[in-house]
Amino acid sequence: MVPIQYYTALSAILFTIGALGVLTRRNAIIVFMSVELMLNSANLVFVAFARSFQSINGQVFVFFVMAVAAAEVAVGLALIVAIFRSKHNINIDQINNLRG
Amino acid sequence: MSLNPSMFIPVLPQILLLALGIVILFLDVLLPREQHRYLGWVAAVGMVVIMLAILPFMPQEQFQLTWGGMVRFDWMSYTFWMLFLFGAAVTALLAMDYPELGERGSFYLLLIASTIGMMFMASAGDLVMLYLSIETVSIPLYILAGFFVRSDESTEAGFKYLLFGAMTSAILLYGFSLLYGFSGTTDLHQIVLGIVQGKVSLPLAFTSMMLVLVGLSFKVSVVPFHFWAPDVYQGAPTPVAGFLSTASKAAGFAVLIRILFIVFPILGNQWAIVLAALSVATMTLGNLVALAQRNIKRLLAYSSIAHAGYILIGVVSGFSELGMVSVVYYLVAYLMTNLAAFGIVSAFGRVAGSDDMTAYYGLSRRSPGLALAMLVAFLSLAGMPPFAGFVAKVFIFAAAVGVGQIWLAVVGVLNSIIGLYYYLTVMKYVYLYRSENDDQPVPLSGSFKLALGVLVAGIVVIGVLFSPWFNWASVAARSMFF
After folding, report:
1. Closest CA in chain B for residue A64
2. Sequential DSSP letters for B399-444
């Protein structure tokens, strides 16, 4: 069996890649993909530990997370479509009407 | 696990709210178009009825875990339920002034869904429940912030809120996954055992605590995770901004104190230092940046950031009973006051067509009643007697002094003085300045007058007759430690 440390290390790497993606990428959809990567890194920890504990809790948690992530993306895409209609652009640097 | 009727008491208000939401959804379809403005009354009255309906079902002194440990029913959660229901009812009344908001059944449904989530947040006893309830609050709020799909500002507010919200909730979830991984359970009351028994090493516990803190700091808009707040409050429909800045923030604090005091009491010294630093940064930055604002909604946003800083002082002193009491008391006072402030901005902004400070010049001549209510709300925000904000601040600072954090109380008082300056500047515009529209009265709807009347009365009552509220807050505070 693959040691649990490998999974946690991989999840930490995925989490970092996701966080960097959110902070550096400018395309709204790629930013959302990066957020998904962060969520999935947490999912990986849940599943890995659920397997090593032989308990079902962590697995169930992952299902909930996936459902929530889908809902979040649905709302996010709806907002992106609304923004795209008026701006014809989804670069997050140009979504800057509000400041002060 | 067998079902028995008493298990439904800890989820009763949520079930009733869900029923109310379904009723509203049906009414939205069945009522003719011109009667849609009654939906707001149905929502508000329904929520008040639910508040009355759960009055007989008060919790016992000892907390109660039901639904397999998912739901913790105690005085703390009960108090917050009342607070959220009240906030949502007032928000429904305020939204009725906006036809594109208040005549849409979906608006009330989203408001109710979010309120249900907040109630589960306040009574969550498990990481699964906590994560799901936080998302149940957030996702409807993202939609509500971007509810005006034709307005660039509103969609931008919704989008920014969603982006920062999704990212911080991913960080929060990563913290949860580590907590689960190292303790082997998702039950908050079992995780603490894992930490105490040394199954989780303290550095690891500290790391996951910091990740969780990041997620919750976003919800309560604590520096350095505050930058979404001004943009979102400015762009979102004003009643929604009011709801975001009060009920949603109170729910964030409810979870914050739950997690810190149930899961991480052993790290109390460490998080007290972290939170004290965050509190100073939050108060100072919020107040200083508020000084420069020319848009009233942005000013209120920075002021609400500063208030999160004051409440953190109470959390830092939370191991003393007075500290915990002061957090609850402050949240009650703050909810009343800030809802009143946002309510006034919402009603007047609609008439004036602008949230710029210049629109408020000479408001006292146009509508003396509205100006007086604004004076009460802003003086309470500034912490002047005899209003709710004053008593709440006294408790917070007294609690800080009580646990020996005198320097924190001093910083808080200095910050209140900065706050007083910009609140009074707004009142100067309202009372002393003139504008050419002086002779145009401000038309106000009946629902708005009712909501504002209740809020202003609440601000005065909580500020003058504080002992019953203090006792209630004490009972709630004690339920955290048993």
Report:
1. B132
2. HHHHTT-HHHHHHHHHHHHHHHHHHHHHHHHHHH---TTTT-----
| Per-position b or e across B248-276, b if 16+ CB within 10 A of its CB | bbbbbbbbbbbbbbbbbeebeeebbeebb
pLDDT of chain B, 482 residues: tens digit per residue = 577 888 898 999 999 999 999 999 999 999 998 888 899 999 999 999 999 999 999 888 888 888 888 999 999 999 999 999 999 999 999 999 898 888 899 999 999 999 999 999 999 999 999 999 999 999 999 999 999 988 889 999 999 999 999 999 999 999 999 999 988 889 998 998 888 887 778 888 899 999 999 999 999 999 899 989 999 999 999 999 999 999 999 999 999 999 999 999 988 899 999 999 999 999 999 999 999 999 999 999 999 999 999 999 999 998 888 999 999 999 999 999 999 999 999 999 998 888 899 999 989 999 999 999 999 999 999 999 889 999 999 999 999 999 999 999 999 999 999 999 999 999 999 999 988 877 888 889 999 999 999 999 999 999 999 899 999 999 998 888 76
Domain ranges, ordered by start, for chain A: 4-94
Q: What is the DSSP letter of B356?
A: B
What are the domain boundaries of chain B? 7-165+228-256, 267-482
- Which of A5, A98, A99 should we substitute to test contact with B (largest number of B Cβ atoms within 10 Å)? A98
Q: Do A49 and B184 touch (CB under 8 A)?
A: yes
- In this prediction the pTM is 0.95
- In this structure, how many other beta carbons lie within 10 angstroms of the beta carbon of residue A17? 14
> A4-94 domain in CATH 1.10.287.3510?
yes
Dist. CA B355–CA B440, nearest whole Å: 17
> Which residues in chain B are contacts of A19 at CB distance < 8 A?
167, 171
